[in-house]
Each structure stands twice: as structure tokens, then as C-alpha cells.
Amino acid sequence: PGCLFFLTSPCKAEITFPEEQKLVEIKRKDGEAEKVPLYQSTDTIKGVAKILLNGSNKKIDHHGISITLVGQIEMFYDRGNHFEFTSVSRELAPAGALTESEIEFPFEFADIEKQYESYNGINVRLRYYIKVLVSVKNSLSDCYCERDLWVQIIQPAPEINNSLKMEVGIEDTLHIEFEYQQAKYDLKGVIIGKIYFLLIRLKIKHMEIALLRRESAGSGPNLYNETETLLKYEIMEGAPVRGESVPVRLFLGGVDLTPTYRNVASKFSLKYYLNLVLIDQDDRRYFKQQEITLWRKD
Question: Is 257 helix (H, G, I), strand (E, B) or coil?
């Protein structure tokens, strides 16, 4: 996967990772699932680059063989313009000649902090990949291969995690208080809260709470906001009475979540919100949003 082989190229490159390397399944841009190597922020990345001579070629002269670890952000509205936030190259071989039909070069990238998480979004993608390049002399095409990696960053538990309070009010008509046990949750956590009905003069027929994800990519005239509803939970059907309280539990474990990302390389953000929606008998909707913070525990 990811290795390009041109008919005019006199050789072919491959990249392999150790068999014991942990893999994670991701969705490619075309929607297909693919398993790629998974790394934490400070993990060493190692593997083998293999160069194979094509067909009748017994010898290839080259300007050098290199391998590069690249981290980049791709904006889908600006496809040709990728922002590289990291690029570290290693020389596998100086200029010379390849005479064996198959040659292997072990490689290693150690002590290189991968400061952002991999992310496949709606309008933006943050990707890490390894590419190997044989710069072939007197050839129309070089020999080239790239393989994607996936980076996740384990975060420490938040030092301060206060409870959250939220109010929905319409003067003399409605007053609801919403209280959650905390404002920050790990990706497999449970959101526990309670809703208090302090004043009800509206005929409420339906009430729900939803977890929203909002991706903001770009800036200025090229700012793209996309909001997805990830979870929806019906709190009650029918009219509540004054003084009533309703418990709420939202389980995050079954949803494909990422941590909250704030201003990644000044290119994009990803935030999560709880959205409380009330619908009255005339189908008018009243809603209130509250941001929560998600973090990666393991």
C-alpha cells in the first residue's frame, strides 16, 4: 500500500515494519479500511526499506538512497498545498550503483517527538508517513515508496476537573438547570449528570441531549466549520413538572472519538459539545450548548 511503481522505473521500493508492531485500522480518504502501524508520541519508528531491481536490470546507477519521516497537514480545500510540520531524512546509501537484485536497508527514527495526533477529518487530515527514494541516474522516473503511520498521544489526567453547570431559561416561562459531575472526560468515560426543572410554563413534549463534534479548519475567508452529531439520547417524552429532576448517562466508549484538539499548528481545531434540546407542543426548539473536553487515557 502506498508504494508507487512506474513501468519506466528500473527498480521498485518497499517498506516493511516489524511483525510485532501494533496496528490500528483507519479509514482512508476513499472510505476503505486500512491497517497501519500505531505509535505513541515518543516511540522509535523502525523497519526495513527494500529495493528490488526490475526485470533485466543488472545494475542501476543512482545519486543516493534516502528515507524520510514526514508529518503534514492537508487541507481538502487547498489540495496542492500541504503544510509540513516535521521532516527528518536519513541517508541509506550514498551515490553509487545497485548490482544485487534485492537489497535491504534497516532504518530507525529515534528521539523524534511526534507532537500531534494523526487525524482524518472532514476538511483536514493530519498524517505521518515514511517515504523511501532512490534517485536514479539517467532515468525518467525515480524509485519511490511511502507508507502511512498512525500516531496517538496518551495524556495525563487533568489536574482540575470541576463540575459543569448549565442553565436554560426563558423569562417567566422556563428555567432548567443542568449539572454534570465533571467537565473533562477520557474517551471511554461516562457523562453523568442531572437535569432540574425549576420553572415550567411551556408545554414540553420532547427533550434530548446530544454529543456534537465541531471541526474548524483554515482561517479567514477559508474557515470551514463542520458539526457532526455523534450521540443522541432522549431524556424524556412528555411534560415534566416543576421540582422534578431527571438523571442523565451518556456512555462514550462505543463512539469513534478523538481528544479535543485546540489550534493544531494554527491550522485546525476539534471541539466537543453537549447540546440540550427541548421541543414544545408547537414544535419550537430551544437549545443550549456546553463545551466539554475529551482526553486520551490509554
Answer: coil
